Structures are given as structure tokens and as C-alpha cells.
Amino acid sequence: MAVEDQTLAELVSEVFRLFRALKSASHEPSIEGVGVAHIGIVGLLSQSGECRATALAETMGIGPSALSRQLAELDEQGYVTRRPDPEDGRATLIEVSPQGTELLARVMARRSARLRAQLTDWDEGEARQALQAVSRLTDALLNSPKGESLSA
């Protein structure tokens, strides 16, 4: 059963509205002195586990040199660890350090508290439905062919 054109148009509009709302709600340039982009890197690494810097850059859609600078800063701050890849000495393996894991826990607690304050009139069922819908949409977008963008 295909989704109707009007529903798709409304969904695209709401996705961008959600994106703007998320940007507005997370307007802090840094949390505990760590930039939001850096926290995003630590979060991705936490989800993926140890990986090569090149794979992480590809996942993030940024160039290796831009990521390298950010990883150097995160390593210096103690939030990630880097080591040579034993299978390829030219490559670097990165993983979240215990300090990075603690930072993510504090950030997640802070974000959860903010969201809880904004969803005071929601019940658990509504939150679960939203979670399922957002997860399904995110999976569909992540699994779409490269180069296909909603903003095009």
C-alpha cells in the first residue's frame, strides 16, 4: 500500500520542522566545554564500537582531515583513545574512553531531563509510539541510497 503524495509532503515538512526544533532546543555551543559536534562523534563511536577513522568519517559524511582535527581534540581531552590498526599501520583505530562514556551519560541525563520537562502531558504509550515512528523513519532515511536527499 503506497503512501499518498499529500501525506509524503506533510511528512517531509514535519521532518524539517522537527530538525529546526531540535536545533533550537540544542542551541548550546558546548556542554561541559565540549562542542556539540564533538559529543556527536563520541556518541557515534559509543554506538559503533572501535572503528577506523576513515569508516567514522564516511558514516558522518565528512572528510578525513576534518575528522582528524576533531579526534585529536577529543583524544587530548581524554574522551577517545586512538591507536594504530594492527592490520594496517597507516590506519588508526578509535574508541570511546571511560571518560568519554561518563561524558555521554551526563549529556544523556541532561537531554532526557529537558525532554521530560517538555513532554509533561505525554504518557508512556505516546512516548513509545513516537519512539517507534522516529526510529522507523530514521532507519528508512539511513538505508536510502547515497546521494538521495530530502532537501533536494
TrEMBL record:
**CDD domains, per this entry?**
HTH_ARSR
Q: Which domain of life is it from?
A: Bacteria
SUPFAM superfamilies in the record, alphabetically? Answer: Winged helix' DNA-binding domain
| Protein name (database record) | MarR family transcriptional regulator
Recall the GO molecular function terms of this protein's record.
Answer: DNA-binding transcription factor activity
Database matches in InterPro entries: ArsR-like_HTH, HTH-type_Bedaq_tolerance, HTH_MarR-typ, WH-like_DNA-bd_sf, WH_DNA-bd_sf
Q: Which Gene3D superfamilies match?
A: Winged helix-like DNA-binding domain superfamily/Winged helix DNA-binding domain (1.10.10.10)
Q: Where is the HTH marR-type domain?
A: 8-139
Q: Which organism is it from?
A: Psychromicrobium lacuslunae
